[in-house]
Amino acid sequence: xxxxxxxxxxxxxxxFGVIGGLIYFIPTLTARYRHHHNQLAILLLNFLLxxxxxxxxxxxxxxxxxxxxxx
Length: 71
Hints:
Elements: H1 7-24, H2 26-33, H3 39-49, H4 53-64
């Protein structure tokens, strides 16, 4: 499959894959950056259902919610 592609096309595919992966995991990265207490659950939701628009939006909204106050 990739044998007929040139180096430029392969570089474009890799760049597109990396950018796509970063966009796909925005909810997980948001949860990690905000130190959300449910990071693992958000990661699993994002990984398993992120390919659906509803699953991705649910993970993003969940990641953006504020954690409960401590103490």
